[in-house]
Design brief:
It contains 15 helices and no strands. The chain has about 500 residues and is mainly α. Among the domains are: about 160 residues; about 180 residues, Up-down Bundle (Cytochrome C Oxidase, Chain A). α2 runs antiparallel to α13 and α8 packs antiparallel against α10.
Length: about 500
């Protein structure tokens, strides 16, 4: 080997070592905020799971626990929704987003105390809000049930997080701005706009009449499409190339997917009000925008698939990739289903049925939550400095929640269509339509038990990781021997 080659190899090793040390410093700087947001998210996931299971049982046995007013279905159901949306999903999204932002900006986390304060305010607001719902002090507006004294705490918390995101982006290292950064920064700025506008119009200075329904569905749809979806897509855009050790397929497709999502999704939501007392142009514009969502969805799906093609074998070994790809596939399915639900001829059947509930689970759980699981499995070992103690628990977690959510979506979708057809049939009584749906609701309760078991397994494994249980591993926790698969060794 000549001297020039030796010098080049030494320079390459030195550069790789500098990158490794830089990443380690960044990960260490995010440790406390990430662990705080993730830990609280998993706590609220378990709380929301209990509420959800109780609500599913009460759909079949209405008298179950009806001797306590705070456990009636009208309080348990919104408590479940808010515990999952604001207790689990939002902190999981924030924890993932702040770690990704620090990594992609290539700078240690700044103002960690600001984020810790935000986490405290956020969890305090969620706790007060859920207690208020159970006590009967609910706004009775879906997704916005928290009273003003609770929603105000959430807004303060998120205001701090938005300011932090702008500061972090300002102090990023010179160089390329990655597609994941677009999605994260946009989501961190879109959510406070959505949340503050909706609360002002519906809770503080109430608008009148049917306009309340329009604002409610504008928020309900956009909180999924412009808050949870961008964070999940940013995560997928980061994790798939990182785990596989190869770049994203097309930078230009990612640009098209981002801007068409921003353009079309903000008009969504009104198709849930087809037939209501609203101007025809408003409903028609929302229907068109919903159908046009096929553009960013297909664009993103092609980009993800072409990045992964030829490397699907890695799904056998990588927990991160298995959860992430599952969520990416369900993003395509959920968005495609959402576009078809905006078509009036189908909407007339599925509206006011369990089909809509199945669709919301496909988007919020099968897509977003599964991607967050993948992110947590990737991020936590890096911020804690310890690998997951049990690949068996990870495997159990995946199959329990994957089978549970697929089963739930199928039974709610089929049962919802049958229920809708019965409601449209003048020869079928309303009580008969409920009887038609009942067997499918029992099966839904069964799927809820699977999800509950999966959440408990996940929480146990997460706790063992925090306690640094077991022997130190020399490499990532995988589902088996990597064999020839190029996997997470590239993703330190």
């Amino acid at each position: 080997m000549n001297p020039t080659t030796q010098e080049e190899n030494h320079a390459a090793v030195s550069h790789a070592e500098r990158d490794r040390l830089e990443r380690a410093a960044i990960d260490a700087s995010t440790r406390l905020p990430v662990i705080l947001f993730y830990s609280s998210a998993i706590f609220w996931l378990l709380v929301g799971t209990v509420f959800g299971l109780l609500a599913a049982i009460k759909m079949n046995i209405p008298t179950f626990l009806d001797q306590w007013g705070w456990l009636t279905f009208g309080r348990i159901r919104p408590a479940h929704l808010n515990a999952v949306a604001y207790g689990w999903a939002s902190p999981a999204a924030i924890g993932t987003g702040l770690w990704l932002m620090a990594r992609l900006c290539r700078t240690p986390l700044k103002h960690a105390k600001l984020l810790i304060s935000a986490a405290v305010f956020w969890n305090l607001g969620v706790a007060i809000g859920i207690c208020a719902i159970l006590a009967g002090d609910s706004r009775s507006i879906e997704w916005l049930e928290f009273p003003n004294y609770a929603s105000g705490l959430l807004f303060i918390s998120y205001g701090l997080i938005s300011v932090w995101a702008v500061v972090m982006f300002h102090f990023r290292q010179p160089g390329h701005v990655y597609v994941s950064q677009w999605y994260i920064l946009a989501a961190f700025l879109w959510f406070p706009w959505l949340y503050s506008t909706s609360n002002l119009l519906l809770n503080f200075e109430q608008i009148q009449g049917g306009a309340q329904g329009a604002v409610n569905w504008w928020f309900g749809h956009n909180v999924l499409g412009l808050w949870f979806t961008p964070i999940a897509l940013a995560t997928i855009y980061y994790l798939i190339p990182k785990v596989l050790g190869r770049p994203i397929h097309s930078y230009y497709l990612s640009i098209l997917g981002f801007w068409t999502l921003a353009l079309f999704y903000s008009w969504n939501g009104m198709h849930h009000l087809i037939g209501g007392p609203f101007p025809a142009w408003m409903i028609s514009a929302s229907v068109v925008a919903s159908v046009m969502m096929v553009v960013p969805v297909i664009t993103t799906a092609v980009n993800f698939h072409m990045t992964t093609v030829g490397h699907f074998n890695a799904l056998k070994w990588s927990p991160t990739l298995r959860f992430t790809v599952f969520g990416a596939v369900c993003y395509t399915l959920a968005s495609g289903q959402g576009s078809t639900m905006a078509i009036p001829s189908l909407n007339v059947i599925t509206h006011f049925t369990h089909y809509t509930i199945g669709h919301s689970h496909l988007g919020m759980y099968a897509f977003f939550t599964m991607v967050m699981y993948g992110a947590i499995y990737y991020i936590m070992p890096r911020v804690v400095g310890w690998e997951w103690p049990s690949s068996r628990l990870i495997r159990w977690h995946f199959w329990l929640v994957a089978i549970g959510i697929v089963f739930m979506v199928i039974v709610l979708s089929v049962g919802g269509v049958l229920q809708g057809l019965a409601l449209l049939n003048p020869n079928v009584t309303f009580m008969k339509s409920l009887e038609i749906a009942r067997p499918w609701l029992w099966m839904r309760s069964g799927s809820g038990i699977l999800l509950t078991a999966g959440h408990i397994v996940f929480a146990v494994n997460f706790t063992l990781l925090l306690l640094k249980f077991g022997k130190r591993r020399s490499g990532p926790t995988l589902f088996g021997k990597r064999a020839e698969v190029e996997s997470e060794m590239h993703a330190v």
